[in-house]
Amino acid sequence: MARNKHPEQTVQRILDTASKLFLQKGYDKTTLQDIIDATKLSKGAIYHHFASKEAILIAVVDRMGDSNSAALAEVRDRPGLAGAEKLRELVRTSMRLSFQGKILHMLPFLIENPKFMALQMQSILNEAAPDYVLPILREGIADGSIRADYPEQLAEVLLLLSDLWLHPILRPSTPEQVRARCAFFNQFTKQYGFELLDDDIIDAMVEFCRT
Amino acid sequence: MARNKHPEQTVQRILDTASKLFLQKGYDKTTLQDIIDATKLSKGAIYHHFASKEAILIAVVDRMGDSNSAALAEVRDRPGLAGAEKLRELVRTSMRLSFQGKILHMLPFLIENPKFMALQMQSILNEAAPDYVLPILREGIADGSIRADYPEQLAEVLLLLSDLWLHPILRPSTPEQVRARCAFFNQFTKQYGFELLDDDIIDAMVEFCRT
DNA sequence: TAAAATAATACAGACCGTCGGTCTGTATCT
DNA sequence: AGATACAGACCGACGGTCTGTATTATTTTA
Questions:
Q1: pTM, whole model, 2 decimals?
Q2: I need a surface site. Which of A22, A140, B21, B79 has the fewest CB within 10 A?
């Protein structure tokens, strides 16, 4: 076959397969031949749609970002919620998504997949913080449910901590460790007038660690 | 020449050269041939002392860790200082060292050198936090200069924020951004009874950004 | 306006250069 | 004589390129 009528499907095939492999084996250890075998496409096909292996990675990360940006934007723009409540909803949504394997911000590896992680971190600081968290913080400051002298910085730190430090996906953790981190995190945010982690999410995180 | 009488010098040559190259060009983009050319050694020599390219990286990171572990241990064991003061000294020392190019925890790249970064982060969480920061926190709690309900978690977060988020080495920053982050950080730590960044370090960080 | 010519697209797969790593050889020291 | 400290030819794998080809889209021409 040549000249497929729906090349977009091919692109999606590549993206789907690659993201699965990157998450399973890590970016470095995933070879182009792996992707070729799994997609049943040829090298020519893949390099027709992507300029390089790294371009595939970037596309994968971008697509992940986009897929939950929608969810996050929905929370951000939901009316009738105080800033602090929105923020809690945001964290809930974000965590839930990542537990479902739809992994949004952070991913299973850190040592195993540093390149992936670095890209994610970049998108956290450059997009998620200013576009989703900061607006909510400002709302919360306006409606009095949040008090923060440095909202830009708080937005970054909140995301960094929740996605990179708190997230149980990143390192093997005992239930006690997870609970202690959550308690610390809640105490930390209380300084700014809100608490983000309720028992539901904490239990979900603990449960997630078992698997 | 064969059978050098001081093979340890050769190892150091390799380590010195490799760390320079890794920091300059990034780990991935540094080829073995680069190291061979710069050291004027042969492939055989390098693979005689190291099992793989990654082994060199790990050795480089370890040596960086060791070189300032001594400095940090000295601060930790210095008598006659309250916990909070020791912690401030620790941060000072740590920052100073990294400014001098002796780079201790974190390094210039994040996107450019993710593997390096991942290893550093690992050593932060596994070694620096429990071995250096935590003991000081406990001291501070005992002598009343620090109050923290979750010292283990606080130790991790302090290091993560100072080395990964605050450190101007990691991303290009304007003086205003640096100052805002420092102000936020100081306000954050005030919750626990101490402030870590004085005007001296902040100015040094701003100055560092210019270069 | 329909057929023919032309161009562009969507692949297939042989091929290539580079890089990490191995292996054999050799000189020097213990 | 054996171990150590190299030297450097060699190898396989991998990312990337290049040429070829079938199919579709577009333009030209009768």
A1: 0.90
A2: B79
